[in-house]
Amino acid sequence: MKVLLIHPPVRVDYDPLDIPAGLAILSSISMNEGHQTALLDLNIERPIQSWNDIAKQIAVEKWDLIAIGGLSSMYNDIKKILYISRKLNPDALIVCGGGFITYMPDKIMKFNPEIDIAAIGEGEETFKEILQNFDSRKWSSVRGICYRENNEIIYTPPRPLIPDLDVIPYPAWDLLDMDTYFKYSGAMWFDGAWKSKHRVNFVTERGCPRQCTFCTHNGMNRWDQLAMLGEEKVKLLDQEAGFQAITRFFSPEYVVNHAKYLLEKYNIDYICLLDENLTSSPKRVHELCDLWIKEGLNSKIKLGTAGDAPSITPEIVKHMKEAGFTFITIGGESGSDKVLLQDIGKGVTRAHNQKAVDTLKAGGISPVMTFMVGNPNEDINDVLETVDFFIQNNIEIDPFICTPYPGTKIFMDNQDFILEQYDEKLRLLSEHNHHNISQEQIQIWKDEALETFLLSLNNATDYSCTVSKHFDFSELISIKYLMHTKDVSKLLKLAHMRKWPHKLKWDKLCPVCSAEEQLSLKQIQPL
Ligand code: B12
Ligand code: SF4
Prior knowledge:
The chain is of the alpha/beta class. It is built from 22 helices and 15 strands. The strands form three sheets. The protein has a seven-stranded mixed sheet, sandwiched between helices. It has a six-stranded parallel sheet with strand order 8-11-12-13-14-15.
């Protein structure tokens, strides 16, 4: 049969840096099953093609099965792709998977009647079985999906995580336009990577041991399984297939063989290991580095990856440096211990972050840090602590605004608050008692607000909503800007304008306090 996989555009305000690894693996599976397979990568061009051109490309064949996957932030474009795909292929089976649908498959199917099947979480086994059951349409035997039957959306029993990742085929590299990706090799502006001519990115780990409240793992680790299914069901999966692991890794042998294959095929000079948290398992890092060096790859391919602060030790850094790592990204998130401990839930403190930066610098690997603003309990003093961290370390950072992506703890904990930001009626209803409005009507408004929220995630290039208890959305946008420019003075002025008390320790940097002092007008008692 004819199978088309479609990768939506992503982060369109920047060059395309990453191949669509998930869909490329599913393409390999489709080919291994003997199907004529095409992968339409809508992210490869800048600017993105017009919808007219995209429709023309989809129209080159009549497809039997169309598979679409992506992150929550791609929902806006996925909706358009679904519309075009269905118009052009009224009889095709349309299957969706990935982060955008994993955490609320029934709602997304309700919003998009074009979708026949939603695959929840890890896709390899599920997709293979969907292909195998295409003729019989016996969906009830395919675990880990939602499908339609008699106008109802049916959930099948959950699917255990794949215990041994080494059974997964390589992505279908031949279906990807690697020459175009290589043109953007140097567009990754991290130490070492920007010099590369033939960079590839791939993932050698699924899941992460930490439990940050703003993060999810596309349904692919124990924390996600627990949040989606509850403890009882996860225990049953454990009994059936072994412990549903928090983190799973491809073996060092698999990773090294994959790298050698790409070296031979494309003469690659850089690999960005897009693991969620590679350093969190020091034993595995040492094993990987040992084999990498033993096979002589350290002189041929440089590496970059992501890690977490507590696991950055001088020993790890030394070994990673020897293996050829040039940068490690670390989610610093905040300079305030209050936010790190109360809101983020990573189990990391400012001291951990500082030690990691110092250790990486001393060991000759470049630290790349990301930060956020707008966590629920973060106030202006916490914001100032983060800017202080930027200043102390002389780093340039444009913080992300904390966004409650579906599936995350901050999304679950703040659902009503999020929806109220998209429908004033819901906000007013939360403040007043309106007994004359039915629960059914409220549910309709909530569903509409949910979809508006999903659409507003708009490629993560637009700002959407907030979970902050202290700042409204427009305030957060100015705070983000002032953090980026490290403008402590304007942040403190804003604090006075908004009557946000700031701590005594910032007085000497505060233009308002200083003026009040000079004019003997100081009234507000500092915290
Ligand atoms: C590379 C990457 C990116 C790339 C783009 C990826 C791409 N081309 O699609 C870039 C750098 C642009 C990016 C940006 C962001 N990302 Co990102 N990214 C990743 C990363 C590191 C690797 C993705 C990957 O290749 N995974 C490996 C493949 C095998 O997994 P997969 O894609 O999930 O596919 C599997 C399943 O999901 C499923 N599946 C997927 N599609 C389909 C389709 C069908 C039909 C089926 C059946 C199954 C299926 O089967 C696949 C195989 O098991 C992951 C973390 C990670 N290590 O996974 C985060 C991750 C996906 N990103 C995430 C986030 C939050 C973001 C940002 C929103 C961050 C931000 N605040 O800006 C932005 C959004 C960008 C935007 N503008 O929309 C989250 C997920 C969010 C979500 N639930 O959607 C992740 C999990 C990181 C995290 N731990 O929080 N990201
Ligand atoms: S350390 Fe990174 S990947 Fe792990 S849970 Fe936190 S944000 Fe997610």
